[in-house]
Specification:
alpha/beta, 5-stranded mixed sheet, two-stranded antiparallel sheet, 7 strands, 51% helix
Length: 409
């Protein structure tokens, strides 16, 4: 839609008479009038294109559809409200592109509302903020309606095809209070953070479940397989019982690394507070050993010293040793990357920052919507490969030669 000579002439006249900001941007200001006329011209042009004939043209007779007057509509944008006359067709088929049906905002204000929501602001805070900055009175319902569009975008993102192989994937969950069937329950938001062959981070998905368990994780891993993930070289997980078995059910060749920090925390739960500091110092010699053989020697020392007093937590180290000791076969660069789930927990810390104002979510979709927006905001910073990736990949290419070579570009 181009500015006509008449519109330019009228704008020049209005601008010459403007003496204040209100004369320019107020309800009847020059800029508002110009924007309104331009939008109405675009709407008329859209309807003409859809009907296939110009206004008042005899070509339109007996075509089965025709113009049917106009309706008033008020749109909100960064500079306030704009009054428009929206043309209608008799069959009600006209759905303009420039001003969609049922849409009440125009331009970047919608993106700004979504951005504020992604930063963790409540709908009431956004309402107050928009009114203070732009002089617009918007309802919490309008904010909710604007952000509601994110649910369908998040669903599309959740079902997107994934890479065929991920050298490293971190699995973890974060818990929130959600209203469900009239009750407040604790739900787990399951997250899978993958490192692709280029060393870039990629959140593979977000799932909401009532509690963290191996059965739910099995469903998550099955979905990854169905979305195109053929292989995972190393999976880093917390100490959830049955989790390694769930992974190996779908990916039998995947090496599982239990998060050492989770294992240590679970161990110290069974150690008296007066002994925890000394016990933690002794067990540290196990997971910081240079080799697996040296680690087993240190574990025997810990068992000799503490075995009689604390047999249960030390028994768990022996029972889970195969998945605890995975990282010993790698150099320090790889060890530092996989021996804890810190990478995904850093993501969870960002989630907590934006959800701290929400003590309770009204439903699963509201939780998923906020977490997805937080991820989308954070992922803009994921522009560089993880540290030392070239060196890490060279190691993995040797150890997993046949499994990774065909996927490298």
């Amino acid at each position: 839609m181009k500015l006509t000579p008449e519109m330019i002439e009228q704008l020049q006249a209005d601008l010459s008479e403007a003496k204040t900001y209100e004369d320019l941007m107020g309800k009847d200001g020059a800029i508002k009038k110009l924007m309104s006329k331009a939008l109405e011209g675009m709407l008329d042009a859209e309807l003409t294109e859809q009907l296939g004939y110009e206004k008042h043209s005899p070509v339109g007779k007996n075509t089965g559809n025709s113009r049917n007057g106009k309706t008033k509509k008020t749109l909100k944008n960064d500079n306030g409200e704009i009054e428009l006359s929206i043309p209608r067709d008799r069959n009600g088929e006209f759905d303009p592109i420039i001003v969609k049906k049922y849409k009440r905002t125009l331009g970047p204000i919608e993106n700004k509302i979504i951005s504020m929501y992604a930063k963790g602001m409540t709908t009431r805070d956004i309402q107050s903020h928009v009114e203070e900055l732009y002089g617009l009175q918007i309802s919490p319902t309008l904010v909710s309606n604007i952000t509601e569009n994110i649910v369908s975008i998040a669903t599309e993102w959740q079902t997107r095809p994934l890479e065929a192989v991920y050298p490293i994937v971190f699995f973890d969950a974060i818990h929130y209070k959600v209203r469900d069937a009239g009750k407040v329950v604790s739900k787990a938001a399951y997250t899978c953070l993958g490192i692709d062959t280029n060393g870039n981070k990629d959140l593979l998905g977000l799932w909401i479940g009532e509690s963290e368990g191996a059965n739910f994780w099995l469903g998550v891993i099955t979905e990854l397989r169905n979305r195109g993930v053929e292989d995972i070289l190393i999976a880093c997980v917390d100490g959830l019982k049955g989790f390694p078995e769930a992974i190996n059910t779908i990916y039998p060749q995947t090496e599982v690394q239990l998060c050492i920090i989770h294992v240590l925390r679970n161990t110290l739960r069974y150690v008296a507070s007066k002994d925890q500091k000394e016990f933690a110092r002794d067990i540290k010699a196990v997971y910081t050993a240079a080799t697996e053989e040296a680690a087993l020697v240190e574990l025997e020392k810990v068992e000799e010293k503490w075995g009689k007093k604390y047999p249960l937590p030390l028994k768990s180290w022996r029972e889970n040793w195969n998945n605890i000791a995975t990282f010993f076969k790698y150099t320090d660069e790889v060890r530092r990357m996989i021996y804890t789930t810190n990478a995904v927990e850093a993501l969870h810390r960002q989630f907590r920052k934006v959800t701290k104002s929400k003590s309770l979510f009204p439903n699963d979709d509201a939780l998923k919507k906020m977490l997805y927006l937080a991820y989308r905001d954070l992922s803009k910073k994921w522009t560089m490969p993880v540290r030392n990736w070239a060196f890490v990949l060279s190691q993995l290419s040797i150890i997993f030669e046949e499994r990774i070579a065909k996927y490298l570009k």
